[in-house]
Amino acid sequence: MRDGEDFVVNGQKVWTTNAVHGDKIFTLVRTEPGSQRHRGLSMLLIDMHQPGVDARPLKQMSGASEFGEVFFDDARVAVTESLGDVGEGWRTAMLLLSFERGASGIGQYTEFRRQYDEIVDVARRLGRDRDPVVRDRLARVLTELECLRLHAMHVLTQVEQGRDLGFESSMTKLQWSEAFQDLWEVFDQVLGEHATLDEVDGVDLRPFHAQALWSRSVTIWGGSSQVQRNVTAERVLGLPR
Asked: Which of 47, 86, 154, 231 could form a disulfide with 170 if both were Cys (CB 3.0 to 4.6 A apart)?
């Protein structure tokens, strides 16, 4: 609620990326009492080190704590710390998400292509590159990655021409997250009976295992694949709800 020139924030947010490491946090807050759904929201930039803000780490199955849970207990935020107009936070959030989901495609492709080459190298070391099933899976993933590259270049062209990414960014998020999971599922198939080992033929597999575990999360954060499919169907393809 608003108190003079401040907002007083109460509540909590789970699965916040880098919650225990960041100095500031983007927070979508209901600032108009009685408002509903996406109306009456404001995007506030809150100092993580101020009184009334507590960030607690969440340990992942990989052992890392990239995410955290944030608690707000009468945290005061100046009205001037609103990103965009007060009450227009939903519009600001959708703009941020469109770039997180859409404009990041080419960067994702570059990293995934490097990881693909490393997985192929492991397959050759283990002699798994001669397995026709593995070769087929690797070829399918490479095709997915190259489709992602072409789509990402299309998106960047649209941005360069001043076009709003809009709901088409959901297509990009869906494409790169699914391709990333497929890539690391192939890695598990490449390892076969070596899947539980930390090292094979002089190759340290621990970073690979960490990436494989991480890949399970990418179809959830930033909007789950189910949400992206619904958005694409309704807002891009014009299908009925």
From this structure: 231
